[in-house]
Amino acid sequence: MKNKIDWVDNAKGIGIVLVVFGHVLRGIFAKGLSISNDTFMFIDDIIYSFHMPLFFLISGFFINKSLSKYGGKELIINKAKTIMYPYFIWSVIQILINVLLSKFTNNNSDLWSILKIIYEPIAPFWYLYAVFLMYILSVIFIKIDIKLKIFFAAILYFLPNTNIILVDNLFDFYIYFILGSFLFKEINQLKKNVLILFLSVPFFLISFYCYNVLFKINEIRLYLIPALIGAIVVFSFSKIMVQNKIFTFLGNQSLVIFLLHIFFTAGTRIFLYNVLGISSVVLHVFLGVTIGLLGPLLFNYFYKKFNLKGLFVCPF
User: Fold this and answer.
1) Alpha-carbon torsion angle 26, 298, 260, 80, nearest 10
2) Residue 288, in any domain of the structure
3) What pLDDT band is residue 103 in, cutting at 50, 70 and 90?
4) Range of the domain at 113
5) 158-200: pLDDT as tens digits
6) Between vectors from CA 229 to CA 224 and to CA 234, what angle results, nearest 5°?
7) What is the pLDDT of residues 273-297, one digit of tens each?
8) Which of 286, 300, 219, 299 lies closest to 20 in space, CA to CA?
9) CA nearest neighbour of 61 among 231, 268, 206, 192
10) Residue 103 covered by a domain
11) pLDDT digits over 193-224, tens only?
């Protein structure tokens, strides 16, 4: 059973590396470093076509087990402590840092932004808010047949954007959360198969090409087929690499990395560009991703070593 869970951790590990890489790339592009618009958009679209849907699929994997374990009320309380609590803590911290370092960061924030996080989640923490709302929906719809849930999620997915961030995030990604809960048993039972990986990679590239080039679909949120095939690529690779403890470890630490990486990637970019005057895109990407992964891990090591409380999970 352990290997079956390890592959999920591997998938989370791969996903969090893509998150860090994507944010590093967006940061240096926003800074105006020498990367062409076409190159940036191509890489950015590929990553964002599937890496967040991947996390919502994984988030849906264990919802049925969680409902059975906790029940509706206790599940919401648990997720409020482990998801919404760090959402508010780190959103406030990020806004305060953005205000203090406004001359160097790519984001314009003021203290009033703190009040807005209740209804207007900020990047990258919007994911936590969205997945928490999906847990609430899971409790509300606990007795509804899964096929009706999929149908409902599909309707939400194809509705036009409302320009209300909280609503749009829920509508755009709820379909993946539901499909994750529906398909987990089948995905989990699949044995590692190199053939599936080799077939899924070209299928992903073809589907991405059709959406991006042939159909010229500009809204990355509508890349449903590439997103699902991209997730299959990651799941297949995760099963093959189930003995790789690096991705397993990163997957286990994915929440900590997710919450802290933006501070380390932005700090690295500011130091390289504003202090050292370095504009090499390759160096920015390499150091940004490396420090963006290792920085949070080091922080978490000392956080646990000194038995600190209150930054990642509600202490009461």
Assistant:
1) 150
2) yes
3) confident
4) 2-305
5) 999 999 999 999 999 999 999 999 999 999 988 888 999 999 9
6) 125
7) 999 999 999 999 999 999 999 999 9
8) 286
9) 231
10) yes
11) 899 999 999 999 999 999 999 999 989 999 99
Query: CA distances (Å), 303 to each of 96, 119, 308, in order?
Result: 21, 30, 5
CB-neighbour burial class of residue 57 (10 A; exposed 0-12, middle 13-18, buried 19+): buried
Task: Identify whether 29 is part of a domain.
Answer: yes
How many Å apart are CA 230 and CA 181, to the nearest integer?
A: 18
Q: Count of domains in the chain? A: 1
Tell me 274's DSSP state: I
Long-range contacts of 2-6 (CB under 8 A, 24+ apart): 3/242, 4/188, 6/242, 6/248
Residue 159 lies in a domain: yes
**How many residues are recorded in the chain?**
316
Contact 176, 60 (CB under 8 A): yes
Q: Cα–Cα distances in Å, from 56 out to 107, 134, 169, 231, 238? A: 26, 9, 11, 10, 16
